[in-house]
Amino acid sequence: MKEFFKKLRLAVYLTAILTIVLGGVLAAWPMEVTALICRILGALLAIMGAVYLFGYFMEGKGILTVTGGLLFLLLGVWIFITPGSIVTLVPIVIGVVLLVHSLKDFQMAAQAKQNGSERWIVLFLLAFLNCAFGVVCICDSFGLVSVAVRLLGFALIYDGVSNLFILYHTVQALKDAVDKIEPIDVESHELDS
Length: 193
Description:
The protein is mainly α. It is built from six helices and no strands.
């Protein structure tokens, strides 16, 4: 049992240290790591497309196989060559969604004002804030990705440090509990057969 806890403690220490290192890398180089992940994704898509195309040429049938293979191959090559283009698309799409929602929010706020709502100014402010977030997402998509990845890195660092702290105090509590257990002194008697 003691050996099991030693192995478990070692595993938690290693996991915590790796988490801290990964978090540090993400916090220090967010865009480089994101670009690397996109390149890996692009390479995997290109390989998948090549496999589909190879399968088509081996069997000679399946127009969907050719279309899908070409699509995956081209998409994979494009992502591999320009990883930043994919990274910046996500905040732009989110920004467009926020803008569309803010337009609906403005309409609802105007409707609330027409119907005599006393809080229509708050509703307009909330709609405006939603609109501002959408514009920021569209205009500074690359910066938002960098901030998000950096925050992820800091979260991983926190996770690793807190795991080390929790493990240390748990081990101390276990040691204290073991130290408190006193051996029981008993007399031995022989049994007559």
